[in-house]
Amino acid sequence: MMIYVKYMVSRRCIMMVKSNLEEIGIRYSSVQLGVIETLDAISDEQFFLLRTMLLKSGLELMDDKKAIQIEQIKTTIIELIHHSREELKVNFSDYLSEKLNSNYTYLANLFSEAEGVTIEHFIIMHKIEKVKELILYDELNLTEISYKLHYSSVAHLSNQFKKVTGLTPTFYKNLKNKRRNNIENL
Fold first, then answer.
1. Model pTM?
2. Helices marked H in the chain — which ranges?
3. Which CATH superfamily is domain 121-184 in?
4. What rounded mean pLDDT belongs to the chain?
């Protein structure tokens, strides 16, 4: 049985959901971002307990088909951008169509209608969040970050970063260093 979970976007969420399933006594074959696959059918009581436990953690069970597809789009993008070790050398529209086994135009229209933003905008926002994270880690330079996130150039990354945040990546990095110095001087 497949159970779909909204707002499940990190490895920590997966660990918490597994713990909840074990506490309730629900046997599962896999728990991935946004999806639980159980080995057996679950009782109404178990379903109620699971729903209640997840709500306490800020997660929700989903049963609406369109909501499930939208969450799958989000989860697929988040997983690819934030959790993949590979460079993002993919065409997102082809990747989403293949991964979700649906026509991209249908997915894009469904997403835009429900979320009020395009899939492209959602991708850009997550790529910029990943850029911020990589800048803060200070392990890669901007050239390496732009390559890792499949930007055509550092200039393209910088322009998109400034458009979204209002800051250049260098200024953002200097703010981080300035904050660190201020904390050290306390």
1. 0.74
2. 11-24, 44-56, 65-78, 92-100, 104-115, 119-137, 142-148, 154-165, 169-184
3. Homeodomain-like (1.10.10.60)
4. 89
